[in-house]
Every structure is written in structure tokens, then in C-alpha cells.
């Protein structure tokens, strides 16, 4: 694939010359880390090789276990895509310190929705994590897995909202004090984007009960990270679903001190002998 080859060749050239900072034709000032992350994702569709300059070619740690480490692994995946098949539509972008989190609809070896997390050092991407899930045609709530509000607001409430969601994960999802659920989720206004769960607390409770009765409970065992900006908070957790080791990425929107909306991507963690890198699925510097 010509685009993938160009990206790999560009990456090699950047490595040889010390990875100069890239600038976009329409901007004269240095792009933000969020803009760089979005440009890199968009390059999967457009083939814009300049976006590769936002990756540190000498230090790019990959946590997608189906992709080999470094820029070579990135190029290898792009080369496997059928020509012109990739589509990328970034819907939400959050910045939390050195991390940028994106929520994206893809056509990437088939229609998918996913979260990408990029860690930056000195303006360059040095580490990447993600969770991808296939898109479905119909959901229990009638919403899609990606639609809904996108604007980041209430920046002054970032830390309070992160604390709220961290408590929800510990008390409800991990079973510490599940009876506290109404302290976290708005009882009359809870929009759900998980394809198997309807809107509202009653639907959530019914879905969790049905999974438990079927012997396939969704078990959260460890919360690895909580990222947030304003009214949006993303948690990254590890556990078991359908009897398989699983990575849970949950995005929450908070309004008035309560969780009012939820999106997620759930991905099975492959067996160790299938990993294409040795970096693991988790491990967030400064977060764990």
C-alpha cells in the first residue's frame, strides 16, 4: 500500500534527522497535543505523511497487543489495510496533562468504535493505548455507540468529576458499595450507548442481573486509570467478561454532580502467546 509505505519511509527519515516538529499549512503556531493526536488519526484515512512527525521515532511504545512495537508496527498495520478502505471520524477529544484521549468511529478492517490514548513528551507522542469494538446496527436504547454531546464544558469541575467517577467504579462497577448507585447516576436522566443496555437505571440493573443469571457477569477487577477534562471522564479498567480477560474503557458525561451519559468499548485481551509486543495492555505512567 503506497500510503503505508510513505508513512514508514517518512518515519525512517525523521529518525535519521532527529524528528523535527511538523507544522500544518493552515497554522503558523505549534499545534496543541490534541490537534496532533487528531491529525495522526486522520492520516490513517488521508495518508498525510506529515502527521508522522508528531511521533517520537526513537520512543514509540505500543500497547495495542495486535500491533508490533514502534513505528515499524504502525506502518505494518497500515500496509495490511485494503487500499482506500480506512475511514476515521473523531467525535470527542480530551486532554489530561500529558495525555490526549480520543473517541472515534472507524472503518478499520470493518466498522468499529474506539478510544485511543496518546502520551506526549516534549510535544511528541511516545506511547499509545486503545480499545476497539465492532459497531452494531441496532442498540437497546436506540442511540448509536458514538452519538451524543461532544462539547467539553465545566473545566473548573474536572477534578471533582474525576473523583465522582472514580468512586462510581470502586463502589458500583467493582462492587464495593453497589447500593450507592443513585449517589453517582442521575435517577431520571441516564443516556446509555452500550449497545446491549437501554436508557435509565432500571435498564442498567436489568442488564447486569441478566448477565449474572446467565453465568456471564461483567466483572471489574482493577481500575488502571481515570482521565478527564471538564464534563467528560474516561476510566480504563481490567476484568472478566464472557469468561475472558477483558479491557473496559468507559466514558461518562457528568452534569450537576451526577453521571448522565455513558459510552464504552469492551475488548477481549488476547492470550499472552498472541501478543505482538511485550508492553501489556495497561501501564499508564503517573496514573497507577
TrEMBL record:
PROSITE patterns from the UniProt entry: PROKAR_LIPOPROTEIN (PS51257)
Keywords linked to the UniProt accession: Signal
Gene Ontology terms describing biological process: polyketide metabolic process
InterPro entries with a match to the protein in the record: Cyclase_SnoaL-like, NTF2-like_dom_sf, SnoaL-like
UniProt superkingdom: Bacteria
Signal peptide positions (record): 1-22
Domain SnoaL-like: 40-128, 167-262
Pfam families noted in UniProt: SnoaL_2 (PF12680)
Protein name: Putative SnoaL-like aldol condensation-catalyzing enzyme
Amino acid at each position: 500500500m503506497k500510503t503505508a509505505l510513505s508513512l514508514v519511509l517518512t518515519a525512517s527519515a525523521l529518525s535519521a534527522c532527529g524528528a523535527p516538529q511538523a507544522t500544518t499549512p493552515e497554522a503558523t503556531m505549534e499545534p496543541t497535543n490534541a490537534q496532533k493526536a487528531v491529525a495522526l488519526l486522520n492520516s490513517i484515512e488521508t495518508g498525510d505523511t506529515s502527521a508522522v512527525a508528531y511521533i517520537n521515532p526513537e520512543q514509540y511504545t505500543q500497547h495495542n497487543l495486535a500491533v508490533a512495537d514502534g513505528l515499524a508496527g504502525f506502518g505494518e498495520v497500515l500496509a495490511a489495510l485494503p487500499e482506500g478502505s480506512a475511514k476515521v471520524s473523531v467525535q470527542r477529544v480530551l486532554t489530561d496533562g500529558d495525555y490526549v484521549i480520543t473517541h472515534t468511529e472507524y472503518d478499520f478492517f470493518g466498522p468499529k468504535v474506539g478510544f485511543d490514548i496518546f502520551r506526549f513528551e516534549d510535544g511528541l507522542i511516545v506511547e499509545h493505548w486503545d480499545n476497539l469494538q465492532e459497531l452494531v446496527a441496532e442498540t437497546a436504547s436506540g442511540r448509536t455507540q458514538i452519538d451524543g454531546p461532544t462539547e467539553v464544558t465545566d473545566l473548573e469541575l474536572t477534578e471533582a468529576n474525576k473523583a465522582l467517577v472514580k468512586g462510581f467504579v470502586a463502589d458500583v462497577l467493582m462492587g464495593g458499595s453497589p447500593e450507592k448507585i443513585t449517589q453517582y447516576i442521575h435517577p431520571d436522566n441516564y443516556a446509555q450507548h452500550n449497545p446491549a443496555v437501554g436508557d435509565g437505571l432500571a435498564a442498567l440493573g436489568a442488564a447486569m442481573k441478566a448477565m449474572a443469571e446467565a453465568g456471564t457477569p461483567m466483572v471489574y477487577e482493577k481500575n488502571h486509570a481515570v482521565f478527564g477534562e471538564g464534563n467528560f471522564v474516561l476510566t480504563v479498567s481490567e476484568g472478566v467478561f464472557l469468561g475472558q480477560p477483558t479491557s473496559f474503557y468507559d466514558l461518562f458525561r457528568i452534569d450537576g454532580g451526577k453521571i448522565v451519559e455513558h459510552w464504552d468499548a469492551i475488548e477481549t485481551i488476547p492470550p499472552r502467546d498472541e501478543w505482538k509486543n511485550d508492553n501489556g495492555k495497561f501501564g499508564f505512567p503517573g496514573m497507577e
